[in-house]
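[step 3/7] fold_predict: job queued, chain A
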Amino acid sequence: MKFLLDTHVLLWTLFEPEKLSTKARQQLLNQKNTIYVSSISFWEISIKYGLGKIEFNGIDPSTFPDYAKKMGFELLLLNPDDAATVHKLKGTWHRDPFDRLLIWQALQQSLTMITKDEKIAQ
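[step 4/7] structure written:
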């Protein structure tokens, strides 16, 4: 299967793996699965870091793409078509722009998201 990590799942994988559910851990460790991390997540992390909303004990977020690759994750770029068509994601159940982009990207690329966010399941 092909999975897309929600931003918090990426951060938990890097810094707090004990927060991952058993099911998420199994999916991440299954060699048959392809795990993607979107450039959207790196963008979200960088913005929140720059605003002082999150801290990583001296680790600069610019190193996260390398960490993701070392963990065996595939990097997924936001392509112009997905960016230009995100308005087609119907519903107001999730207003966070980063999450809406991730949801749309997952739908467009036929990826299953790994997330704890119950709104995303909607």
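[step 5/7] annotate
Residues 2-115 form a domain with the Rossmann fold fold (CATH 3.40.50.1010).
The radius of gyration is 14 Å.
exit 0
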